[in-house]
Design a protein that fits this description.
The protein has five helices and four strands, in the order H-H-E-E-E-H-E-H-H. With about 110 residues, the chain is α+β, with helices and mostly antiparallel strands. Strand 1 and strand 2 form a beta hairpin. The longest helix has 16 residues, at about 100-114.
């Protein structure tokens, strides 16, 4: 782990850390940024921290492709989204987009035909 807190993971997290999960790292944030830069229409959906996992964010592209990574706190992904000029939503308020579920269904059907 880098000695610098490049994305504010430790500063914005506060003192709480999920019990069974590893902490978010710069690599997690960089993976979300790389996903967002390499696809069109990306939106971020923040998932709350649970007893077992840290706060996570799901990046969903316009075709429904998605990736999930730890982010440490909602403030971290809001900062990243602001820098990338992308929207960020609370999944507890909005739910996941329909295109994400459609993408998962397409992938399942493709695997079944193999």
């Amino acid at each position: 782990m880098r000695w610098r807190d490049r994305y504010g993971l430790r500063r914005l997290r506060g003192p709480k850390v999920a019990k069974f999960d590893r902490e978010a790292t710069d690599a997690d944030i960089e993976a979300l940024i790389a996903f967002a830069r390499s696809r069109r229409g990306v939106e971020f959906y923040v998932e709350p921290e649970t007893f077992a996992t840290d706060t996570t964010a799901v990046a969903v592209a316009d075709d429904g492709e998605w990736t999930r990574r730890r982010v440490g706190s909602p403030a971290v992904i809001r900062k990243v989204a602001r820098n990338l000029a992308l929207p960020v939503y609370d999944v507890q308020l909005t739910g996941y987009p329909r295109r994400m579920r459609d993408y998962n269904e397409r992938r399942r059907r493709e695997e079944d035909t193999l």
